[in-house]
Predict the structure.
Amino acid sequence: MAKHVMITATIGIGLLLAFASVASADPTAHFSTFTIHCGGNVYEIVSKPGSSNVVTVNGLPSTSVSVLMGLTITVSGETVFEFHKPFTEHQSFTVCRDEEPGGVVVVAEVLFTPRN
């Protein structure tokens, strides 16, 4: 009886592995991208929460990852949203600033790693 269960389990696991799909690591397969201008460079970044792959820097392929470290949004000079993640003094981040109509200013602090 135990031998029969073992053979059935082995066949079941084999079938499960045979029909399992291969995972894809393409960061743009499920998320769109957007372009930002930071520190004199143009970045195309995958639009997803948390850390995001940098697809290109100034039009050239990149292996960098962007990590949002802080964000401040002001409307007509009044801060309406602000957050900052803690960081150490050896980390340097890039400041991205965007001014929108209606007096909306968005300032993002982004850590690009590795920097390229």
About this structure: Residues 24-113 form one domain. The radius of gyration is 22 Å. The chain has one domain: 24-113.
